[in-house]
Automatic annotation (TrEMBL):
It comes from the Bacteria. Gene3D superfamilies: D-Amino Acid Oxidase, subunit A, domain 2, FAD/NAD(P)-binding domain. PROSITE patterns: UBIH (PS01304). Coiled coil: none annotated. This is 2-octaprenyl-3-methyl-6-methoxy-1,4-benzoquinol hydroxylase. It comes from Ideonella livida. It holds the Pfam family FAD_binding_3.
Length: 370
């Protein structure tokens, strides 16, 4: 029999389950409307870059330590190259005095860990059709039906690009180094990942025009391996495709409002950004932390769905999400154009940033805590 709920959460992903666990730890009764998670699929090639703030949240929820060791890999160094010889920026965890710049996490394993934690939490009731609650939190993703039912407009600008993802086996150890190449109009990233299917290899995320991404999704593995060798200049040796390939369209999106009387939006239901900075899930988990803090600090007489209370959450997240959206979109626009003058400007800019240590530290701090 379904229990009465303080909060109902709509969504089947990492953000919805993380929020359910956070609110349950507060002592709230949570109704989670989510599809039961399937066992981790061998064809799920997604990987996420998590910042220390997101990792700390998952540790608090006891989902991080439950991950298999090979499902999470520390990024100790990051090397970003422009589209001119010698242009680029290098970041080091040692120089920034942090344990890791980020952690690369297998998506399916993280979902499975959170699903297990949710299933055994007595304050979370998994319901296909939950009843009413004082507060409804929408975490259904960028195509949320509930957001539409609430009448909240979602401003979306497609890039005409798709991301191509797969797993790659490398000739040698990755040494905790993440690589990224900005070459108009593409962004190619190799994220270090220790998984049985790729050893000490990489997760590939390659943003490119949609038709081109679909071509490489269907191409022979040998053809994809050859083009990756050319694009990377062989700096990581020859790479071998070791998994299925997936693509998804890229866009910039923002909900007209993220809260109202009795409801709030979190994660991709509230905002979508380009993956070039690897901050999409970090933004969603920052939403989770912000809403959790606002609800925990509410006055004893104030209802969970109080509009004024939920505006505190909206204000708390306004700057961070806006700044990340503008930053990622601006960077993509800068590298999407191939005009010679613009190419020279951006590559000189990258080289200059690489030489200014305080600026590099500031950039890293922004990424470490969104």
């Amino acid at each position: 029999m379904s229990k009465s709920a303080d909060v109902r959460i709509l969504g089947s992903g990492i953000v919805s389950r993380s929020l359910a666990l956070c609110l349950a730890h507060q002592g709230l009764q949570v109704a989670l409307q989510a599809r039961p998670a399937a066992s981790p699929r061998t064809d799920d090639v997604r990987a996420y870059a998590l910042n220390p703030s997101s990792v700390a949240l998952l540790q608090r929820l006891r989902a991080w330590d439950a991950l298999p060791a090979e499902a999470r890999t520390a990024v100790l160094d990051m090397k970003v190259a422009g589209d001119a010889p010698g242009a680029g920026i290098e970041f080091s965890a040692w120089q920034q005095a942090v344990d890791a710049l980020a952690w690369i996490v297998d998506a399916a394993e993280l979902e499975n860990s959170l699903e297990t934690a949710v299933r055994y939490n007595p304050r979370i009731d998994l319901q296909p059709q939950p009843g009413p609650a004082a507060l409804t939190v929408v975490a259904e993703g960028k195509a949320s039906a509930e957001r539409e039912r609430l009448g909240v407009a979602f401003e979306r600008h497609g890039y005409g690009h798709s991301a191509l993802a797969t797993r790659l086996v490398a000739e040698g150890p990755h040494q905790g180094t993440a690589w990224q190449w900005f070459r108009a109009p593409e962004v190619l990233a190799l994220l270090p990942l220790d998984r049985p299917e790729c050893g000490h290899g990489y997760a590939l995320v390659w943003s490119q025009p949609a038709e081109q991404a679909e071509h490489w999704r269907q191409a022979a593995p040998e053809a994809l391996e050859e083009v990756l060798l050319q694009l990377t200049g062989g700096v990581v040796g020859r790479l071998r495709v070791a998994g299925d390939r997936a693509t998804w369209p890229l866009a910039l999106g923002r909900a007209q409002a993220v809260s109202g009387p009795g409801w709030a939006l979190v994660g991709d239901a509230a905002h979508v950004v380009h993956p070039l900075a690897g901050q999409g899930l970090n933004l969603g988990l920052a939403d989770v932390q912000a809403l959790d803090e606002v609800l925990a600090a509410r006055e004893s007489w104030r209802d969970l769905g109080d509009a004024a209370l939920l505006r505190r959450y909206a204000r708390k997240r306004a700057w961070g999400t806006w700044a990340m959206a503008q930053g990622t979109d601006g960077l993509w626009q800068l590298f999407a154009q191939d005009a010679p003058g613009l190419r020279e400007l951006r590559n000189h800019g990258m080289t200059l940033v690489n030489r200014i240590a305080p600026l590099k530290r500031w950039l890293v701090r922004q990424a470490l805590d969104v």
